[in-house]
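User: Modeling request: complex.
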Amino acid sequence: MNTIWALAGIVIKELYRRKDFYVLFVLTALITIATGMVNFFNDPKIVRYVKDICLLLIWISALLIAIVTTARQIPAERESRTIFPLLAKPVTRWQVILGKFLGCWLATGIALFVFYLFFAVITGSREQHWPWLTYLQAIWLQWAMLAVVIALSLLGSIISAAPSSTTTICFIAVAGILLVGGHLNTVALHQSQPLQTIFYTIYFLIPHLEWFDIRDRVIYDWGLVDWLDCVLATLYAAAYTGLFLLLTWFGFRRKSLNT
Amino acid sequence: MKASPYLVLALMLAVCFTLASSLEPNAALWSNRAKSNNVFSLLFGDGRRMFANEFFTMADVYFHSGYYPSIFDLREEGTKEIVAESHGHTDSPEDELKEDFLGRPKDWIDRFGRHFRITEHTHLEHSHEREILPWLRLAADMDPQMIETYTVGAYFLCQHLKQPQEAEAFLHEGLRNNPGNYEILFGLGRLYYQNYHDIDRARNVWQLALNCWMKQDSALQKENKLGFEEITVNLASLEREAGNYQDAINWFQAAQKVSPAPDALQQQIDEIKVKIAAQPSPTNSQPH
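Assistant: Request completed. Predicted assembly structure:
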């Protein structure tokens, strides 16, 4: 377990050494503050559009950080040939996979915490209201969703050699699931065979990441999701994460490491 | 530490966006060009009109606190509820049923997913209606010829947020962009009548609105009968309040010609007639 934590620690250090997080955070902060400063009909109490824009930017930034950070982990180790001394430690390939996953997930969690802290300060200062439990649920569910995304990116990085193609494919897949995934059953109903079966199969196979998006509940002050549902959603995310990590390990264990 | 050129570019874009949004209000004063154009028309040209409808829809989404059909949900395209509300329409139980676009869950994924979504049909109230205003402001900036933006915005500012000055300014802006528009004039008259209780000004503006409605070609008049009814019924109510009963009857009778419920208007006419009959005749009154 110490080996896995050590590997994860390196990934976390990489997050604060690289400038991705800082640039995305500054970008989010600047755009949110700028939109928050706009005066609409001399009414200073209008706040939901600021929450909406800020949360959208947080979601995009977190996805970017998660996918970009994960997609380059193993290809970078192979490129710089540091994978050989790493595996000679001895560290098993399963530990490399778990260490990289844990590092990326924790690093994304730290970034997410900073983003939500900013969100809470900005919106709270405007509406004088801090629903911490709702924020906690929003962070947790988003973080659980990011675990699936990170595991998927790790799997992609084993299949594809170039981090850029892994990043692009993962981003399209995740955005597709978030935007269309939940509606595939409705679309399937209006298709003829065999398209209907294909749509239904995809619908039941994909991880339903849209469940974890409770931005609307935060923006429109709808209150908490039932905690039991949160636990079930977390188990669902854990199952898909485990499945993707297992597939990554299967791929990685047979993979030739020579570039 | 070597900075990636893409990240530097992204940072510079953010700085540009921030500067643009903070300088834009002042920049309007620097040149004559800005008097007729806003930052969106300079940036997007006529393409900005495409976004206006989206922003107007966003206002309706906010009005429903997020309970809104997506493009995948089958639902008849009708009048947006913020527009219906600005015309005094409230949801009947049948309307509520029609707006239940979710229906029964189709499978376990759909059922469980609904625990995280907004599944309750509500409308903003208790001054939370202010949250729709940014989208209406943006829609007006994107398409200054979209009349509903001004009338709906003014309605919510007046009736729900008690900001008649802001509503008046918004309607005047709409009138500058759409001279002689009867819908905006009607909204302005309603503001003078209901919020400022200025009967003379309201009467003048509504009569001007009626003249503008009459100037439309016959096809548009047929299409916009509701506008005629709204103006005439409100003029009738105003005259009744002012004690000009005969004028009030005339306006109600004019409204009856286009109204889908002429009997309700006839009832009002009859009530006025009773009032006229109850008034002492000037020839019979004894001078003191």
